[in-house]
Amino acid sequence: MRVYFDYNATTPPSPEVVEAVVRATRDLFGNASSVHHYGQQAKAAFDDARSALAALVHGDPGEIVFTSGGTESDNFAIRGAAEALEPTGRRHLVASAIEHEAVLNTLKALARRGWRTTLVPVDQSGIVSPDRVREAIGDDTALVSVMHANNEIGTIQPIAEIAAIAHQRGALMHTDAVQSVGKIPVDVRALGVDLLALSAHKFNGPKGAGALWVKRGTRMLPALTGGKQERNRRAGTENVPAVAGLGVAASLAAKKLDGEAVRVGALRDRLEDGIVRQVPGTAINGARDRRVPNTTNVSFDRIEAESLLIALDLEGVAVSTGSACSSGTLEPSHVLKAMGFPPHRTQNSLRFSLGMFSTEEEVDRVVAVLPGLVEKLRNLTKRAGAQVVAKS
Ligand SMILES: Cc1ncc(COP(=O)(O)O)c(C=O)c1O
Questions:
Q1: Do the Cβ atoms of 126 and 156 come closer than 8 Å?
Q2: Which atom of ligand 1 is closest in space to residue 71's alpha carbon?
Q3: Buried b or exposed e, range 35-47, using 16+ CB within 10 angstroms
Q4: What are the Cα distances from residue 114, in Å, to 100, 219, 328?
Q5: Predicted local distance difference test score (pLDDT) of residue 343
Q6: pLDDT at 324
Q7: What's the gap in Å between 383 CA and the centre of ligand 1?
């Protein structure tokens, strides 16, 4: 039995999405900007997807700019807004310390070009304090960027409160909602943001497709210059198959959101309770009452997370150590570090993230294999430690 519990890294596409991508690739090959029949057919599919996505986030279709995914959307949001505001003298950017690399490294790149940047810390529960954001904002702040849900621990941030503070000081508000769209209700107006990034492959859509929701009237430099696609905001021939798949994923998410949140939440809680009960020396990271329903991040005392990840993989269970982009390296999680955890605690944590195809049997399988693997690894470490002591 193979178990995939790494939905925050990416999700398997739903069969309806695969069908839509295949159909669009085969039948809707026209250039969506062409005036003839083929172009108009492609454009109609594109427009349907735009409407479906706008409905999912409660925005207007005209406010959606399709991109190649979350990374591009974050880059576009930050660079597009920052550069548009540069002539006003606002050259300061604020973000939380637990943002995804797509945000953090974009800030770093702008800092190398003379922008001032401030990272706002989080508390031990992994929540950004609006008061700390207020302290960080200055008269020259162009943009505040705080993620809606964290990818490693799942914590949901007080975006509406932070957006109100940003606006009081004349700054724009961007949220990276890559890990919340499709998991919890996302309403751009209720959040009060100006920009919101999302990615299709995180909610059972295809990879390489995403969007930035841009509130009407927001001044932005284009993501890409060239043709007039996406109302001059992102040039390039439209990727109809990917966007058609994104649209279907958005429709399915909107339809299933409430039921799935309850179902997946119950599975996550069963997994979490099972682990805490069956494996001694564990702790759950992040505010348990303010998380997306599919994610749990667990610390295992006296365990090196990478070793446990590999041991689980050999048992057919796929999980992750925090952010997928930094796994494969032994870098401690910047999120757990920002939460103030000591070094051993930033390197002994695994993320289990569930989703559309997760089942109770899978949860029970993981709870069944985990205690033995942890015990084995702890014994190995103990024996290795004893040998080192004996040698010295
Ligand atoms: C919070 C967050 N932002 C951005 C991204 C990047 O999205 P994409 O893989 O679509 O570029 C990810 C993906 O891991 C993410 O979790």
A1: no
A2: 11
A3: eeeebebbbebbe
A4: 22, 21, 32
A5: 85
A6: 47
A7: 40
Task: For residue 62, give the 3-state DSSP assignment.
Answer: helix
Query: How would you classify residue 89: left for phi > 0, otherwise alpha for psi between -120 and 50, otherwise beta?
Result: left
Ligand 1, residues 74, 174, 178: which to mutate, most atoms within 8 A of Cβ?
Answer: 178
How does residue 237 score in pLDDT terms, banded at 50, 70 and 90? very high
Q: Is 190 exposed, middle or buried (0-12, 13-18, 19+ CB in 10 A)?
A: exposed
Marked catalytic residue, from 34, 325, 337, 364: 325
- Judged on CB neighbours under 10 Å (0-12, 13-18, 19+), 235 is middle
Q: What is the pLDDT of residues 312-342, one digit of tens each?
A: 999 999 999 964 444 455 678 999 999 999 8
Q: Which residues pair with 296 in a beta bridge?
A: 352
Q: Is 156 helix (H, G, I), strand (E, B) or coil?
A: strand
325 is catalytic: yes
Q: Who lines ligand 1 at CB under 6 A?
A: 69-71, 74, 100, 102, 147, 151, 176, 178-179, 199, 201, 210, 324
Q: Name the average pLDDT for the chain.
A: 95
**pLDDT grade, residue 57 (50/70/90)?**
very high
Q: Whose CA is nearest to atom 5 of ligand 1?
A: 70
| 204-230 per-position pLDDT tens digit | 999 999 999 999 999 999 999 999 999
Q: Which residue has the tokens 């807004």?
A: 81
What are the tens digits of pLDDT across the range 68-125? 999 999 999 999 999 999 999 999 999 999 999 999 999 999 999 999 999 999 999 9
The amino acid that residue 332 corresponds to is P
Q: How many whole angstroms separate alpha carbon 194 and alpha carbon 192?
A: 7
Q: What are the residues whose beta carbons fall under 8 Å from the beta carbon of 92, sequence distance 6 or more?
A: 115, 116, 117, 118, 138, 140, 141, 142
